[in-house]
Fold:
Amino acid sequence: MNICVFLSAAELDERYTRPAREFAELIGKGGHALVWGGSDVGLMKVVADGVQEAGGRLIGVSVEFLAARTRPAADEMVVARDLAERKRLLLEKADAVVIMVGGTGTLDEATEILELKKHGHTTKPVVLLNTAGFYDGLKEQFRRMEDEGFLPVPLTDLVFFAEEPVGALAYLEESFGQR
Structure:
């Protein structure tokens, strides 16, 4: 399975890097490939290192203005013209999506895949990995959107909330097997 991971390229502390390394090892040991933003810095590097060290493949999709930060040892690297093309390519190459901790770029990517799912333009499984409660507020907001009628489909049809890496991968493998 090609697992697209949306996440930060920032340098973060152990409460975020430890679960990211754990998830990366699960991807690699499971024989899966990582599809990611292609960066060789911060949390993106942590995940790429973990997948590669555990025997998984790396499929990077960077963007021209960040091309200097791409990982040289990726199995595949594409450089998109702009962020819109990057998102499109990331999703094309992915069988499933995991949203990890990140900033506005990660949030943009997350809402795009959820919007595509909401309108039936993709059936790919999506997991929000809520490391250290990072997305508690977003989870509450999504529930409010559902409760107040802003989502035309049940929230559970759009995204699975996982608190731990092992639960995230188990959900993806189960969902992928049912497709």
